[in-house]
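Input chain follows. Return structure tokens only.
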Amino acid sequence: MEKSRSYTGLITGIYVAALAATLISFFTLGFSESLMRFVVTLLAVCIAETVVYGYALMWLRGARKASRTSPVWISGAIIVALYMAVVLAAAIMLDWILELNPLWYAGIQIILLLAAAAVLAAVGLHGWNAASGERRAKDASRHLRTHRQELQDISRLARGWQHPEAGRLSGLLDELAEKFRYSDPVSRPGLSATEDILRQQLSLLHDHVALLLTLTELPADWDVETQELTNSIASTLARRNQELAALK
């Protein structure tokens, strides 16, 4: 956080220095014989510098939250840099060299500003839509990831069972894990009830395995009961996959 504040202060200092240098340069050297063109150029350059400053702060804030730099941020930086370059080029060519009519010149600078804003907005909207799509896909696959994580926890618990029947229990859990492995990873909101049933069944299996590990003497039908639990989970999983296939 302190590092981010120091960068913000540095960027702000550079921005203030750039504005001061621009004002001193314009009022000391002058830029054209037309007062209106002079004002338009000064405003255009100051606005371009402000755009660069604002985008730098947004980049700094976004970089702090993201693990890697998004292509959208890079595209925006390129657009901002091009806008700054075009504004300076237009000032030199249209004001200083060609001495364009002040009203036409002001209109062109406004068009450049609006065009840059429109392109930045389009890039930002595209990035927002892409990020929303990634979030939706991640949320849609969250249920199966949760189920598989629960089953992995159960298998890890079973592997610590010091009993001759441990191999049989691990085998049943491995068969169930294989069915989850080849299941559709993407869920649908309409399947929330089925996903909840799966969660409850896995929780029951977890409790069942944890109970087995505490027993000194196993019931004669422990494997039958365990098989019934894994079969019921496999049946619910199969129904889930059929419902998903029907929704596509």
